[in-house]
Amino acid sequence: MTSPAMTEPSSTQSSTAQSLNTELVLASSSRWRRELLDRLQLPYQCHSPDIDETPHDGETPHALVHRLALSKANAVSAHFPHHCIIGSDQVAVFEGDILGKPHTTEKACANLTRFSGQRVTFLTGLALLDTRHQRHQVHVEPFEVVFRTLSTQEIENYVTKEQPLDSAGSFRMEGLGIALFEKLEGRDPNALIGLPLIALCDMLRQAGLDPLGAP
Fold it and tell me: Is it the case that residue 10 has pLDDT exceeding 70?
């Protein structure tokens, strides 16, 4: 397996923050997760994990995102022996089916056609691996979306405009995807974008990296 290239500390952090010994690592290449993590105003760096995300036979959606979130953190841990590493993974669940990223326009349109007028559950796995003390925390955050009744033209227009081919559920909550919904139900809407910040803040506090700690 080829090790992915190391990235620099988040470019949105100040030059002062970048000069610090950053203990926090985001095991993701997702721009959306980086933007969410930026909100906590903690210095961090990114490293893209390289793992097989294929579900195991008989694996439940909850078990899948739990395993993959921790696997992503573990996949980069050799590079960061004295850090706290964040891993996250998300799936959509509809009528018992696990739906990942559509990858094609046709699949995205097919998914949204199925979702029209229906309720879809999103499960986001979140892991914090502390390689300083060989500990980890894992949490699975549920969130539900009720879709409007969508016309074929609306679905095609949305997919053409936003190209949500790398997004679980075939939409982007942080973009035009909000126009697809009737209502949202859950504790933390950030989970729908890919990083449950409320749960993450709790994990970070337990690991001694409180976002509200002393400046």
Answer: no
What is the DSSP secondary-structure string of 57-75? TT--HHHHHHHHHHHHHHH
The β-bridge partners of 130 are 84, 135
Domain 6-206 -> CATH class? alpha beta
Active-site residue, from 50, 57, 89, 166:
89
pTM above 0.70, yes or no: yes
The confidence score (pLDDT) of residue 9 equals 46
Closest among 113, 110, 6, 109 to 49, alpha carbons compared: 6
Q: Which has more confidence, 201 or 21?
A: 201
188 catalytic? Reply is no
Give the 3-state secondary structure of 84-126.
EEEEEEEEEEECCEEECCCCCHHHHHHHHHHHCCCEEEEEEEE
